[in-house]
Amino acid sequence: MTATDTAPAAKAEGRTPLMTLNGVSQVFDTKAGPIRACDQVNLSINPGEVLCLVGESGSGKTTAARMAAGLAKPSDGTVAYNGIDIWSMNRRDFSTFRRGVQYVHQDPYASLNPTRTILQTITAPLLKHGVVKGSKAAAQRAAELLAKVDMTPPESFLSKYPHQLSGGQRQRISVARALTLDPKIIIADESTSMLDVSIRISVLAMLGRLRDELGVGFLFITHDLAIAKYFGWNGNTAVMYLGRIVEFGPTQQIINAPTHPYTRALIDAIPEPDPDLTKTKGAGSLRSLEIPSLAHLPVGCSFHPRCPRFEGGLCDGAVPELITVRPGQSTACHVVARDGAGDAEVRDEPVA
Ligand SMILES: Nc1ncnc2c1ncn2[C@@H]1O[C@H](COP(=O)(O)OP(=O)(O)OP(=O)(O)O)[C@@H](O)[C@H]1O
């Protein structure tokens, strides 16, 4: 077994991934002292690929996403787009990056300007970046984009303000705005978590259709592995815990054959309609439900105080490295590194 990063297919094929996070860290100064919200994260995404970033609240997902979107500068490491560090790009390349990578926020109400109509919200980037010429063409394109996100008839929404729309409709507007500049990657940060279940499912279905039709890549952030399973079944999933990636691999393997005890615990938290499947899950219970503070990380593996497979002297020594345990799948766990992961038995089950 060898130390590994979490860059999937493109690197293996010798291509430069469209976007890479190379050893990216983010340190915040807080009252409790400096915290490392992201610690040496390696990820890569290509157009058409889905990468799900999963973990509990506070695991560093949004911090990683903001760095990927160029909204925050890493304390360490680099974010590269088309192989170029975004923080040393010239203006033209940085503008290409900004157009190519669009961020869809968890709370569309906070990210939509309340004083702008939907027409103004959608046409502003189209006109600013010269995607279309003239207000008539911009309005026509805005109507097409609304139809793409299933807001029909578009004409009935263009003159409305965000407060006149439902949460699901606002989220669709955020997605339509993200599509204005023909992005290569959409970063969707818990973008359905504030919606009611039935609305969430329809917004997820719409995003899934865009994923398939437009060939756009997704960095899809969620605390809910069930949603990663739904959205990212044919992509990869990285599981984050207290700022570090603890497991990475094809989503099907992560769901059906997880190796890290934390991933197993997240999977156990997914309600399972089939009792036989529930029986095959076997993480054992967590030793503690308390998530340690980033300001006082446990020594060694930071999951060890909660881990059902904890072994004194092994897990509370060094920080475990992310190592390849099966083709395409890597885990940061001393016990798995010592005992092996076993064979993955991946059921090609249909997406729920
Ligand atoms: N600007 C900041 N200053 C200080 N601490 C911060 C800042 N931004 C994030 N943090 C801290 O960094 C840690 C990771 O936060 P982050 O929002 O990235 O996690 P998350 O996994 O996205 O969680 P959630 O799902 O709750 O948004 C948290 O402890 C958070 O309080």
UniProtKB/TrEMBL annotation:
Could you tell me which residue ranges the ABC transporter domain spans? 19-267
What domain of life is recorded for the organism? Answer: Bacteria
Instruction: Establish whether keyword Nucleotide-binding is in the entry.
Output: yes
The record's Gene Ontology biological-process terms are:
peptide transport; transmembrane transport
Q: Which Gene3D superfamilies match?
A: P-loop containing nucleotide triphosphate hydrolases
- Show the GO MF annotations: ATP binding; ATP hydrolysis activity
- What are the UniProt keywords, alphabetically? ATP-binding, Nucleotide-binding, Transport
Q: Does Nuclease count among this protein's keywords?
A: no
| Record PROSITE patterns | ABC_TRANSPORTER_1, ABC_TRANSPORTER_2
The entry's family comment says:
Belongs to the ABC transporter superfamily.
Name the record gives this protein: ABC transporter ATP-binding protein
